[in-house]
Amino acid sequence: MKVSVLGAGPLTAPLSQLLTLAGSEVRAFDLSPDAPAEDHAAALHHAELIFLTVPGPRLAASLPSLRLGPEHRVIVCSRGPDEATGLWLSELVSLRTACLRVGALAGPLSPAEVQRGSPAAAIIASPFQDVRARAQAALHSPRCRVYTSDDLRGVELSASAARALTAAIGMSDAMGMGAGVRGLLLSRGLAELRRLGKAVGANPDTFVGLAGVGEVVAASAAADDAAYLAGRALLRGEADPHEEAIAVTAALVKLGARNKVDLPLLEAVNEVATGQRTAKEALKGLMERAAKLGGE
Q1: Could you give the CA distance from residue 14 to residue 11 in angstroms, rounded to a whole number?
Q2: 105: part of which helix (H) or strand (E)?
Q3: Cis bond leading into 81, ω under 30°?
Q4: What's domain 153-295's superfamily in CATH?
């Protein structure tokens, strides 16, 4: 299968590697403003399937130069929602281009581990069966097990929240809080995610799969994961607000507010990122919340 990988994000090289190992004919293209226009045209002409690896905070700005048509099938590999518009990244592609068939890639795909030759796993979500089937065929191999789902919203939400929760765990680890607090953050974060998922019509079973729990467990165990490092940087007051995990956290907090869903953990991480509270104050506030029936 002919596949184009568009962007210059951390997944570009490892994803291209996995696609090639699966037997796909892969071409990678840079979507930066300095990239030649003919590269865009070549990417679109070459591909039966397109993987967009532009980091989420930069995806909206990249779309106008990419002339996607109704014949294209696109898999978004970055995390949303878009903070400025509140749209999911798949929605951005659908609404701001002529592309009709869109999906999302999620799961514990660590760039460093892929490049070291470790086994990998991923999930492709789309409401379109042909998009799921093509993407699975393009990526599945003995090195990478690929699952599919029709719960696009659930997978996008789970994968986005996984970045935010990994940042929270990184911040906790930097404070020396230990495994107990790690467990607390993961379980409470999952409870928040299920509440938010219910509000936006996602399948609650999606959150305990590869895109949610699977990605958090893998990312928080990798000392070089970008979201984990962003969380550690929060403790030092050095986190980049444009880093994907930080931007996604802010966008999810806004999504919760619009849907009247209480998200104390994500709100605490966002408050630390925006300088409203210190990490110690945020953790203290979470620990002092009144306990509810069932731990909610």
Answers
A1: 6
A2: strand 101-106
A3: yes
A4: N-(1-d-carboxylethyl)-l-norvaline Dehydrogenase; domain 2 (1.10.1040.10)
CA distance 286 to 139: 41
In this structure, the number of other CB atoms found within 10 A of the CB of residue 288 comes to: 7
pLDDT of residue 262 exceeding 70: yes
Q: What is the mean pLDDT of residues 139-165?
A: 96
Nearest to 214 by CA among 89, 76, 112, 120: 120
- What whole-number distance in Å separates Cα of residue 135 and Cα of residue 137? 5
- Taking the domain 2-149, which CATH number applies? 3.40.50.720
Quick one: tokens of 213?
Answer: 């729990």
Nearest-angstrom CA–CA distance, 141 and 239: 36
Q: Where are the domains of the chain?
A: 2-149, 153-295
Is residue 109 left, alpha or beta, with left meaning phi > 0 and alpha meaning psi from -120 to 50? beta
Instruction: Please tell me the distance from the alpha carbon of residue 60 to that of residue 78, in angstroms, as a whole number.
Output: 11
Distance between CA atoms of residues 143 and 191, nearest Å: 32
Residues in the chain: 296
Residue type, position 161, single letter: A
pLDDT digits (tens, 9 = 90+) for 195-242: 999 999 999 889 989 999 999 999 988 888 999 999 999 988 888 988
**Helices within 77-178 (DSSP H only):** 89-96, 111-116, 129-139, 152-174
Full-model pTM: 0.91
Query: How many Å apart are CA 85 and CA 102, to the nearest integer?
Result: 18
